[in-house]
């Protein structure tokens, strides 16, 4: 599935920064094309579901909270 995102680009020192407007993901590169390609890869990784190598334990806890 393809989805369209908006990227903003700006110069920081020797680097071009590319940041996605819709999702808090950014990357950088030496050129605009490199920064945008790196941002695409960062977005693909951001939306890839995590794969746990060890199943997490789930526990319930009780906490007494005193309201002020």
Please explain how this structure is put together.
- The protein has 68 residues and is of the alpha+beta class.
- The protein has a single domain, classed as Double Stranded RNA Binding Domain.
- The protein contains one helix and three strands.
- It has one helix at 32-46; strands at residues 7-12, 15-20, 26-29.
- Strands 1-2-3 form a three-stranded antiparallel sheet, with helices on one face.
- The protein is elongated, with a radius of gyration of 19 Å.
- It starts with 6 loop residues before the first strand and ends in a 22-residue tail after the last helix.
- The model has no long low-confidence stretch (mean pLDDT 93).
Class, according to the CATH hierarchy? Alpha Beta
From the 3D structure, determine the CATH topology.
Double Stranded RNA Binding Domain
| Low-confidence region ranges | none
Question: What is the number of beta strands?
Answer: 3
Structural class: alpha+beta
Strand order of the largest sheet: 1-2-3
CATH architecture: 2-Layer Sandwich
Tell me, what's the shape?
Answer: elongated
Largest sheet: 3 strands, antiparallel
What can be said about this structure in brief?
The chain is of the alpha+beta class.
Which features characterize this protein?
single chain, 68 residues, Double Stranded RNA Binding Domain, 24% strand, 3-stranded antiparallel β-sheet, alpha+beta, 22% helix
Layout of helices and strands, plus pairs?
Blueprint: E1 7-12, E2 15-20, E3 26-29, H1 32-46
